[in-house]
# Entry
Amino acid sequence: MGRIVSLRDYEDFARAFAGISKALATWTWNGEQHGVFLTIAGTGGAQVESLNSNAVSLAPKDIFAPSAPTSITVAAAPGRLSLFWPANPERDVAGYNIYRSTDPKLPKPDWLKLNRTLYERTTYQDEAVETGTRYYYYLTAVDTAGNESQPSDVVTEVVP
# Structure
């Protein structure tokens, strides 16, 4: 389907069968997995009976990326630039990716990624910089399912 399936989708599917006029879907939970319980009625409220259907396991999948990091600030000191930002509001953020360029017009996929693994803190010191050079940075947030946010706004500073 290419999207999240809702209880309404189950109800609409059931009503598409001949002789079915009412359908009610509810979520179930057996302590280990989610399911859907579907109650149906025939035309005019006629009773519709069948054997229990086979159980189908539902495994929720997180497909929603976190929001982009915001309010990033840069502080300059001799030989280093320090980035600061507030933690993302999503509870499942695993860390951040930090990107740098000296050319703001360079396509973002071509910017240098500064961290090899997800960066778990909300401050970063970039000491691989040159005095008098302007650097541009953006960040992305990554959640525990591996979904990566859109890029943050770009911030910039010159190394003193």
Q: What stands out?
A: The mean pLDDT is 89. The radius of gyration is 26 Å. The chain has two domains: 1-59, 73-158. Helices lie at 7-15.
